[in-house]
User: Fold these one by one.
Assistant:
Number 1:
Amino acid sequence: MEIKKKKILITNDDGIHAKGLAELIDIAREFGEVLVVAPHTSRSGMSKAITVDLPVRLKKYEETANFTSYSCTGTPVDCVKLAFHQLLDRTPDIVISGINHGSNSSVNIHYSGTMGAVIEGCIHEVPSVGFSLCDHLADADFEPSKKYFKRIIAETLRNGLPKGTCLNVNAPKGEPKGVAVRRQGHGRWVEEFERRTDPHNEDYFWITGYYQNLDNGSDDTDNHALAEGYISIVPILVDMTNHHAIETIKKWHFNEE
Amino acid sequence: MEIKKKKILITNDDGIHAKGLAELIDIAREFGEVLVVAPHTSRSGMSKAITVDLPVRLKKYEETANFTSYSCTGTPVDCVKLAFHQLLDRTPDIVISGINHGSNSSVNIHYSGTMGAVIEGCIHEVPSVGFSLCDHLADADFEPSKKYFKRIIAETLRNGLPKGTCLNVNAPKGEPKGVAVRRQGHGRWVEEFERRTDPHNEDYFWITGYYQNLDNGSDDTDNHALAEGYISIVPILVDMTNHHAIETIKKWHFNEE
């Protein structure tokens, strides 16, 4: 496939030093000119948070041919916003985020900074894709998934994405069997806060917990694809409206005394 | 309408001291027993962020008959998670959040901590509603909307909500003409970062900007209802999948060499 030189914006939520970011840069540079704006440290779990109460700083990190990177003290969404407003000379052809160290499948999309940045790219009407590997280790092995991630970027550049839609891509550990397009799995985190007492005799809590799958064996979810060894792709909407519920709720009694 | 005594969890993103929170507590106490867990300070723009890198603290703030409140050093989503895991003796009948000082209509739902908490309540499968007033002032006048907000809570308790669906309620300034159930408006923030230089000669940026409506006059959006003087309700889905796009994207060439 012939690929014209593209402009690619990359961010992540594990920070500028993360191995997964370096791997995504490695893939992206084959497509053209790359701008990276990534948090200066880990901003996991930042969702689509924006920094409103503090100023944000940008610092040039690296510059080579067709490649520039910046670290940013803000959130992943701040990184995308700053790139669009302060750094890009034209709209990029694609926004990519990751590769996240750890799964962003199912309900994790709501908490994920990786996917927060992707949704921000989509709000800017640029094709946007988030990549995650189901391995949270700092030295996770991204190699087996890279050829698939490259194809997903190539196909996104070639086909575009439906209006208001971005992609949530998750890869299993090890050699994937292929790619499966699925819906967002239904589940939730069951929190198990750990209560500790500090040296001043005050309590504090660490968040922990486990994921509870509530799909009862459905075979059309991202989590099912991952469990079967496939890379999952979920097309994600910026419009969160439950359009079917509008007529139902219109029948409620709001306006009578 | 006869209302049985309910258990109500309240949070917000403007913090435990906000006037909007006091107004929502005032409405909620008519329905039953209230537990408040709110950020100890403003956590605006926190979206569905969770605190993973730091521990979180809870502090009892007030306790009277059928009413207990806590301040929390975490995000609005942390507040909901801690309430469910550490403080509630049973699942609440409803989770309500707000009243936010400022609009959370349209694309603001993605950045809103108020709505982040509501989506968390919905992930916990409890009927959840977020309330916002289109006035960001600390002493905003919530009075004209309170009777409508009370009815929305009463109707939510009476009817329940469709599975995986919560409500984003926004009120205009002044006396509302009534309530309108709408879709999420299409638009985005046009950022206008303000660059300044600190006393050490380093640059920093403040986020600012304005909202750009991209709906071209559609009359079925939340923003249109607000502009016409109505309170808008948008039913919001936890499942962000673009189900229609799955078949399209399945035709892409992922698996061939």
Note: Chain A touches chain B through 84 residues (CB under 8 Å).
Number 2:
Amino acid sequence: MNPFCENNHDHTLILRRLGIDTSREAVIFMRKDCHVCRSEGFEALTRLKVCNGEKSILATLLVIHSDLLKPDEASLSESAWITLGVKEGERVQISHAEPLESFGLVRSKIYGNKLSEEAFRTILKDVVQRKYSDVHISSFLTACSDDRLDQDEMIGLTKAMVSVGERLIWEKDLIVDKHCVGGLPGNRTTMLVVPIIAAFGLTIPKTSSRAITSPAGTADTMETVAPVDLELKAMRKVVEQEGGCIVWGGAMRLSPADDMLIRVERALNVDSEGQLLASILSKKASAGSTHVVIDIPLGPTAKLRTSEAARVLGQHLETVGAAIGLKVKVVITDGKEPIGRGIGPSLEARDVLSVLQNEADAPSDLRERGLVLAGEVLELAEAVAKGQGKHTAEAILVDGRAWKKFQAICQSQGGMREPKKARFMHPVESPRTGKVVAMDNRRIARVAKLAGAPKAQAAGMDLHIHLNQAIEKGEALFTLHAETQGELQYALSYLRSLPEIISIEGGA
Amino acid sequence: MNPFCENNHDHTLILRRLGIDTSREAVIFMRKDCHVCRSEGFEALTRLKVCNGEKSILATLLVIHSDLLKPDEASLSESAWITLGVKEGERVQISHAEPLESFGLVRSKIYGNKLSEEAFRTILKDVVQRKYSDVHISSFLTACSDDRLDQDEMIGLTKAMVSVGERLIWEKDLIVDKHCVGGLPGNRTTMLVVPIIAAFGLTIPKTSSRAITSPAGTADTMETVAPVDLELKAMRKVVEQEGGCIVWGGAMRLSPADDMLIRVERALNVDSEGQLLASILSKKASAGSTHVVIDIPLGPTAKLRTSEAARVLGQHLETVGAAIGLKVKVVITDGKEPIGRGIGPSLEARDVLSVLQNEADAPSDLRERGLVLAGEVLELAEAVAKGQGKHTAEAILVDGRAWKKFQAICQSQGGMREPKKARFMHPVESPRTGKVVAMDNRRIARVAKLAGAPKAQAAGMDLHIHLNQAIEKGEALFTLHAETQGELQYALSYLRSLPEIISIEGGA
């Protein structure tokens, strides 16, 4: 079948584990003067095929100019070592990678042609099998970004994403879900909606993502109070027991192509509409959902900045959703400023807990938004009459059923815990007296990230003000939280290099 | 000024050279459990700033899980080691990379906005300073590919490419040049045009590229007969002495941004119009040219496939050229089949030498094309009357002046040598009797590359037929040349997996 390995029985090298982690890209290390490099003229970045018996992977070559390896040795990056299932001292065969035929389809897209569902499936199969280097994935993402995909292609991409992964089958006909397109710091409504909906009695198996370009994803925030890294089987048990869960989707290989792509998207700090849409809907379809409410925050520094763009995305989500069998309702919400007070996993979890526990000073904006979305889910599922959704949701929150359900879900996911608190805190004061007239979501997110979020769970920013609020010169606008002094300094350095991320006008 | 290094005097590690070549992308290797990774939470693929006194670079982190390094040690990839100018045992400071602000401009391009010359300059400065990882470069290339750049942007990109590199100043007012957009195997006319034009008395300081996606670039082919890796000063001396040269442009840092981009373009196997145009014209402008003839081969498997596309590219080249002060004449030529017989550096050089030496069986198509282009250069420069160009060029070839000049140029570049011959040859026979009706340039190029070209100079393919020629079943269509048995096998395997790359029709 494949002539590229079998003809080269002399092109073998002995594996030695150097323990180098290159993230997911498979890398092979070989000496410049090994017989394989010499006879084949391989040089750094050549793509090679590495065979271990029946198994094979494609890997990018990095060349060793020293005695790190002996001339008859090679090494593999950690992920490649595991994927290929090799042991120290085993021999692998090395040969030219066969041409990556599916990249011809990406090239065709670059040249402006349309791609079919079949074409996307061909590409994504190779992506999932790690045949694409990060450079190839970057090009695919860029070629499919922005308005380069039309509606048929979005449908094709979404279906292809679903088809290359696993798909959950539930015993119920009605499976609800909610999602937020993101871009708004602190918008942690999932952790309110899931317990309300599950307490009502519907099934909501929510898989969330970790942060891509933001200081916290729902999975990061949830992780501060309970494990989210559940295997499929464990997640299914939680849902059967409690009616809902809030887990990390990545652990589950639902839409694995999306996980491979997101890693490079994160390096690029780029989200595109087609990818966004395929990412959201493929996860929902793979999770077996039938009815999905999608929150699109709209504001000058949110992900969606004009009502036209939000409307178009909303329409695409509903149409593409219908094409793959999902009933989608889009809710466009106010995205002018962060939601709640905390930004960063632990701080956001603290806000969520105070809403669930009906504390008097719980952030009312977060509470209101959670209730609106939970209400929309109930109405979309036709579980309550039109107009009764929010009211029903509020009753479940107020009488403590939501809080009880949340605790039960946390227990079922592996046990509830307290969010960590940061070691270092630093208040940042208002430079003048006046009124808050604008807040830059993007830069606020960046400051929280520089302070260490989401990796450092307790890091981030605690906002003390909201839009239109009056403030005195010298009062704290927000407090930075960090787990290391270094990260606190990065965040402060960045703040000093910027125009104001929170604009204060007027006042004496 | 820059707060990212100075605040972290404790974040230092001791350098140990592991000798790992990652091509041009700068990589830093650190132990997972070193105090810097632990305190900062760095993980594989994080972009870091590495400071050595005043000098600093950005590098991508790969994480070591073994004893390859001690906990207080780090290593750098070979190119990073050299760029940063460090020594074994020195301490470097490591910190978060400041945000790559210029990538915001790439993002803006992805979202469909226009980029100004200033924006391109900002991006390319960072590219040349190696602040972009390969993943970033891949995205930039893809975002600017195909029809994503309008004419103003092409001008901006070209000017920016020129401005971030060096520019040659000559003492003459008239500096001529020629270029081929490529895509046609064997089209090695530069090695004919340069000696003819220089023998005529004009100045033609030709810098050529190595192969990007083809089995040989002019620099690769010229290298089989003379050194091409000349420094700027040496190249200038050749031109002053002989009126012309044929050297590798990459050694000269003319348009260094282009060299950084081409490396990733090669990995992607993608050429785009805007990049192509900026690449060509920036090299020409940087080399100080004033009049440039550009050859665009047109054919069903050439780089340009429709006369409309060739016309549009030609018009862009002339217009963008004019905008940056170059007089450009585009010549659209027949690109239906390879030129000459050999494909691969040595084989192509052999064809060129036979034309220069007026051998009776020299490939007439290569000769004809060289004369046409040399004639166009003479006419564009107004060195001869309209219509007299080709005739003048032919006289210089026929009477041996061109051959004499070519030898003198080779001598001046460091000495003339014989092209190598391949160790392994394998004829491939026609499967039937008939007439050659089509030749697939792309697949012919791929077979020559799998046989080892351009890295193995003598490797490639020697064609024994041309379009419309009659052939008997069992006669050789072409002969594969390779320097290793393995490469010969790859080429043969690929051939077997394909439909015919040379189509034969009719016959009995």
Note: Chain A touches chain B through 69 residues (CB under 8 Å).
